[in-house]
Amino acid sequence: MTEVLPSDPIGRHIICDGEYATVRYVGEVPPTPGIWLGVEWYNPLRGKHDGSYEGSIYFTCSHPTGGSFIRPKKANFGVSFLTAVTKRYGPGCDWNEAMVIGKKTVELVGFESVQEKQSQLNALLDISIRECMVGDVGQKGELKTNCPNISTLNLSKNLLSSWENVADIALQLEKLKTLDLSENKLSLPSNPSSLASSFTNLVVLSLNRTGIIWNEVLQSAVMWPALEELHLASNNITCLERPINCLQCLTLLDISKNHINDGNQLHAISDLPRLKHLNISDNRISSINFPVQHGSYTESFASLNSLSVDGNNISQWSFINELNKLSSLNSLNCQNNPVMDSDKNSETIRQLVIAKISRLKVLNRIEILPQERKGAELDYRKIFGNEWLKSGGNQNSDMNNPSMEFLIEHPRYSELLEKYGALDDAEIKQPQPFALKNQLLTLTIMCPDIPEQKPIKKKLPDSMTVQKVKGLLYRLIKVPGSELKLSYESSKMEGKEIQLENDLKSLQFYSLENGDCVLVRW
After folding, report:
1. How far apart are CA 80 and CA 94, in angstroms?
2. What would the DSSP string read from start to end of 202-216?
3. Which residues have a Cβ under 8 Å from the Cβ of 452 and sit 6 or more positions away?
4. What is the mean pLDDT of residues 264-288?
5. Quick one: which of 169, 175, 253, 382 has the fewest CB in 10 Å?
6. Cα-based distances in Å from 311 to 148, 255, 284, 325, 332
7. What's the pTM?
8. In the predicted structure, residue 108 carries a pLDDT above the cut 60
9. Contacts of 69 (CB under 8 A, 6+ apart)
10. In order of start, what are the domains of the chain with their CATH numbers?
11. Helices H / strands E in the chain, number of each
12. Average pLDDT over residues 331-339
């Protein structure tokens, strides 16, 4: 532990008995003789008081039980950056000479050559010294001399106390592009712009679990002029402000696991010109509204093509409707929200989301194939057909005047009618769910490449999978199902042939209807 205190102990981070703390006071605490350190623990339940002792205030804590007094010899102020790197990667390091798998220890063949390579610190490109108790920069210029080629650096959960410390490290690592500072508590610099020259090549920065708030992000952002990715998960962010003259190169922003409960807070970052990926998962967002400037699109988030909203409080379909206004959105993650966990089955929920967002290509990390989109949109068109009629919709375009209430709830419905045509009487008529005859499809089965094979008419359940249809065809035409390729033609989609590519999907999934023709090839 520490025998001699560093010259600048106030504000430094330490480890004591395995717990992290910040030094807030150095001096005597009468009547006990000797020097004490007043510390504020990262874990406030570890302390005993708020910095006061027997009526005297020695320091202040953000929590009433966050403080303690300890002797200096119990405090570990950590090691220098180069000491940590040398211990992990330098000559004689033994931190990874063997790997334990289960109860067996496996010797790493050829480890000596790997160790020899790692011992050449100046050849290191990507390094991790996570949780290595790095507390100071060390001697001036020693990093530039010993390990100047580091481009990716994991410095998470160490004892660095200020951005000036980090800047001193980065200034010597001129090739540094990716930096992880998660779980460090860094005080803001008095003049952030003066440190910008240290981070000129930095493009990826992680500040997860650092306790930072958005206002502090904006104050610091001038230090990162070329930053493209910023990770701010698990912090104390509750509100957002518009970035002015900063973060303009950002393509990815992760503000998941924070405390944002108003979706309209996102308008503050909607003008970031290059933002392509936004993660706002695990906040408390329930709604959002985007202004429409061009037709049905908004100018907000003009470049955004990937959005994650998993684990929020989204319970209304109006939120999903709003996402259709984003002109570039093609990937969405929205699991673990009330609207996705309703009484409808998961496949129906997926179809509704696909039908509501026209440009979506990936939903919950699963690609949306063209036939799935077509099926989802056709089903959406049918499901809400009666509601459309009751609201004032009509198959006659001259009389079609659905209510504004319906159009707000189903903003894509008119577009789907233009795409697939007005509904006919058979589509609008409600099926009798328990009558088997109403679940059967009369289909014509043809083999276009085998002229001598006569067409076959069959009545098949709409719930029948493509795989079972192939099993039926094997009995009819004696060709193994594994060799068959199925598609279908509909009288409503003349000239188009839809592939039945997924054996596990039902005929209903592909929106087959009475009178359609199934084409069989092998």
Report:
1. 19
2. --EEE-TTS---HHH
3. none
4. 97
5. 175
6. 42, 13, 8, 22, 13
7. 0.78
8. no
9. 29, 36, 37, 38, 39, 53, 58
10. 13-74 (2.30.30.190), 130-369 (3.80.10.10), 375-428 (no CATH), 436-521 (3.10.20.90)
11. 13, 26
12. 95
Between CA 301 and CA 212 the distance in angstroms is 24
Cβ proximity of 240 and 278 under 8 Å: no
| Nearest CA among 25, 24, 28, 29 for reference residue 54 | 29
How far is residue 386's CA from residue 427's CA, in Å, rounded to a whole number?
10
Radius of gyration of the chain (CA): 32
- Contact of 522 with 479, CB cutoff 8 Å: yes
* Residue 129 DSSP code: -
For 474-505, how does the pLDDT look when each residue is reduced to its tens digit (9 = 90+)? 888 888 888 899 999 887 777 788 888 888 78
**What phi and psi, each to the nearest 5 degrees, are found at residue 125?**
-110, -50
How far apart (Å, rounded) are the C-alpha atoms in residues 354 and 332? 10
CA-CA distances (angstroms) from residue 289 to 170, 187, 275, 322, 405? 41, 36, 19, 6, 16
**Residue 153 one-letter amino acid:** L
Contact residues for 155 (Cβ-Cβ < 8 A; gap 6+)? 129, 130, 134, 166, 169, 179, 180, 181, 184
Q: What is the DSSP string of 329-366?
A: --EEE--SSGGGGSSS-HHHHHHHHHHH-TT--EETTE
Question: Which pLDDT score, from 0 to 100, does residue 501 have?
Answer: 81
CB contact at 8 A, 296 and 325: yes
Strand, coil or helix: 167: helix
- Among the listed ranges 122-136, 183-197, 269-283, 484-498, which one has the minimum average pLDDT value? 484-498
Q: State the Cα torsion 124-130-135-141 to the nearest 10°.
A: 10
State phi, psi for 148 to the nearest 5 degrees: -80, -10
In a 3-state reduction of DSSP, which class is residue 28?
strand
Q: Closest by alpha carbon to 224, among 257, 189, 259?
A: 189
Measured at the CA of 145, the angle between CA 139 and CA 149, to 5 degrees, comes to 120
Give the closest residue to 517 by CA, choosing from 493, 482, 484. 493
Q: H or E element: which one contains 470?
A: helix 466-477
Q: What is the mean pLDDT of the chain?
A: 89
For residue 169, give the H/E element and its range: helix 163-172
How far is CA 51 from each of CA 15, 20, 492, 502, rounded to the nearest angstrom? 18, 17, 78, 67
Better-scored residue on pLDDT, 134 or 2: 134
CB 261 within 8 A of CB 293: no
Comparing 12-16, 352-356, 449-453, the range with the smallest average pLDDT is 449-453
Query: From the centroid of its chain, how far is CA 329?
Result: 14
pLDDT average, residue stretch 136-162: 94
C-alpha distances out from residue 37 to 94, 187, 223, Å:
34, 19, 33
Mean pLDDT across 271-279: 98
